[in-house]
Amino acid sequence: MVRAMPLRIMTREEHNISRKQVSPNTLRTLYRLHENGFIAYLVGGCVRDLLLERTPKDFDIATDATPTQIKRLFRNCRLVGRRFRLAHLHFQDEILEVSTFRALAPPEEEEIQEETGDEHRPPRHLKDDEGMVLRDNVFGTPEEDALRRDFTINALAYNIADFTIIDYTGGLEDLQQRIIRPIGDPYVRFTEDPVRMIRAVRFSASHDLAIEPATWEVLCGLSSTISRAAPARLYEEILKLFLKGSARPVFGLLGRSGLLAALFPGLGHWLQGSDVRRTFVEANLAALDRLVLGDTSPSPALFLAALFGPRLEEEALERQRDGIPHLQALDAACAQFMKEICQTVTIPVRIGGRLRGILAFQPSLHRMPPRRPTAMIRRPDFAEAMTYLLLTAGTRQENRSPLKWWEAFLANAPAALAAEPAGEAPPARQRKKRRRRRRRPASAAGQGNGPDRE
Ligand code: ATP
Ligand code: MG
Predict the structure, then answer these.
(1) 60 assigned to active site
(2) Residue 110: what pLDDT?
(3) DSSP string for 328-342
(4) Which residue did the predictor score with more confidence, 435 or 412?
(5) What's phi and psi for 90, nearest 5 deg?
(6) Which of 199, 228, 233, 241 to mutate for ligand 1's pocket (most ligand atoms within 8 Å of CB)?
(7) Which of 38, 205, 319, 324 could be a cystine partner for 33, CB 3.0 to 4.6 Å?
(8) Rounded distance between C-alpha atoms, residue 18 and residue 3, angstroms
C-alpha cells in the first residue's frame, strides 16, 4: 500500500476555483449527492486544470454512494464498465461520469465487502505474474481513491460540502512546482499499468510540466514494457497523445524515453541515425499542432500520415525503383505497415485505409496542371489529402507550387463547381464498380477510399 502524505486541506479562500467554472449539470449532481447525505467530490484532471487556470476537458465526480445508490438518485443514470463499475449520467449535451470511491489494495488486503445482487460480487484485484493489474474493483475510502490514482497532480479533490481542496498525496505542492510524480513507487506504478508512462508524457507535453527526475529514469528503464498494454487501448491513448496540439513535444519525449521505439519498432528503426528523417516527421507534427491551435481537429488518419507518411512514401519509392508501379508499391508498403504495427497498437483497418488514401492521392495533387480538378475536390479523401500536402510543405519544396495552385483553385471552388457541366465526370457508382472489378488489388490497408487513378 502506498504511504500517504500528511493530509492537506486548502480552504476556499486559498484557491482560485470558482463554481462558475464548473458546468451546471456537474454542480447540480454534486449538490444532489451532498443533499442526500453522500460525499461528493470533483476529482481527477478537472481539479488539476482548474487550479492551472485551464479549461477542463470534462468533469469527473467521485462519491461514497454505490452505483446502485447513484442509480436510485438519478433517473438519467446508466451503469457501465466491467473492470470498474461507473455511473454515467446522461444530460442533453454532456455525459457525466460518477464513480464510487475505489481502493487499489494488494490481494492479501482484500476483504469481502457487504454486497448483494449484481454489482455486489466479492471485491477483486488481480495482477499478472509481472505485477500488471488486470482487475481492481473494490470500493474504498476517499483517501484510498486518491492513492490509487496515477499522479499526485491527478489525485486532488474539490469538496462541494465546503469548497475546499483535499490533497492526500502532495499534489498541490507538485502542481505549484509543475512536476509530474506518480503516487508511490514509480517502478511499481508503471509496472501495474504501463499506460501510465504514456500519460506522464502526455501531461508533460500538453501542460508543460516536468517529469520528476527519478521518475523519468524509471520510465526510461521500463519503456520497453509498454508493449504489454492492450493494443486497442494503446491506439486510444496514442490518439490522445498526438491529436491535442502537442504532438511535436510528445514525439521528442517518446523518442528520448525509448517509448517511441517500443510502440512503433519499425518507425524507431527507420529513424535511427537519420536526422533528416527525424526532421521531416518533426516538421509534420509541428504543422499538425498548428492546425489544432488554429481550431482544426485533425483526423486520426491525418495524424498517422504525419507520423508514418514519410517512411511509407520512402518505402514505396524503394519498391518503385525495383519496377513496381507507384500505387502497387504504396499498397504493399501500407499492407506491410498494418501487419507490423498491430503487434503493439491496433489501428482500425478503416483508418489504415484512409491513411493509404491520403498518400495515394498525393501524385494527383502534384500533377500540374491537374486533370479534372473539380472532380478531384469532390472525392471524399480530398480534404485530408490536401491537408497532408499542406503539412508536408514545410519540408518539401516541391509541394509549394501545387499547394499554391490548389489554394487559389479552392478559393474559387464554389464557382468552379457550379460551372462544371453536369455530365463531365462519369457517375461515381459506375466508376467505383469498374475500378473494383478490374483493377483494385487486395490489400490489408485497402478498405478506405478508392485509389487515385485520375
Ligand atoms: P484529461 O484532461 O486528458 O482528461 P485526466 O487526468 O482527466 O486528463 P482521464 O483519462 O480523464 O485523465 O482520467 C481521469 C482521472 O482518472 C485521472 O486524473 C486520474 O486520477 C485517474 N486515472 C486515469 N487513468 C489512470 C491510470 N491509468 N491509473 C491510475 N489512475 C488513472
Ligand atoms: Mg479527464
Answers:
(1) yes
(2) 37
(3) HHHHHHHHHHHHHHT
(4) 412
(5) -95, 115
(6) 199
(7) 38
(8) 31
404 CA distance to ligand 1 centroid (A)? 43
pLDDT in tens, 220-274: 999 999 999 999 999 999 999 999 999 999 999 999 999 999 999 999 999 997 8
Catalytic residue among 150, 167, 331, 452: 150
Is the pLDDT at 375 greater than 70? The verdict is: yes
CA 15–ligand 2 middle distance (angstroms): 21
pLDDT at 135 over 70: no
pLDDT tens track for 74-91 = 999 999 987 678 999 999
Quick check: 2 pLDDT over 70? Answer: no
- Closest alpha carbon to 42 in 110, 109, 104, 96: 96
| DSSP-assigned beta bridge partners for residue 42 | 61, 158
> What is the full DSSP assignment across 301-316?
HHHHHHHHHHHHHHHH
Instruction: Name the grid cell of 418.
Output: 457550379
287-313 b/e with 16+ CB inside 10 Å = b?
Answer: bbbebbeeeeebbbbbbbbbbbbbbbb
Q: Tell which atom from ligand 1 comes closest to the C-alpha of 49.
A: 2
The backbone torsions φ and ψ at residue 134, rounded to the nearest 5 degrees and listed phi first, read -100, -30
Q: What is the per-residue pLDDT for 112?
A: 34
171-221 pLDDT, tens digit each: 999 999 999 999 999 999 999 999 999 999 999 999 999 999 999 999 999
Confirm whether 167 is a catalytic residue: no
pTM: 0.85
254, HSE (Cβ side, Cα atoms, 13 Å)? 28
Is residue 196 in contact with ligand 1, taking CB distance under 6 Å? yes
The yes-or-no answer on residue 58 being catalytic is yes
Cα(47) to centroid(ligand 2), Å: 10
For cell 495524424, the residue is: 303
What's the CA gap between 175 and 152, in Å, rounded? 8
Which domains are assigned to the chain? 1-109+123-180 (3.30.460.10), 264-418 (1.10.3090.10)
Does residue 109 carry a pLDDT above 80?
A: no
Rounded Cα distance between 412 and 431, Å, is 26
* CA-closest residue to ligand 1 atom 30: 149
Q: Which residue is catalytic, options 60, 64, 167, 193?
A: 60
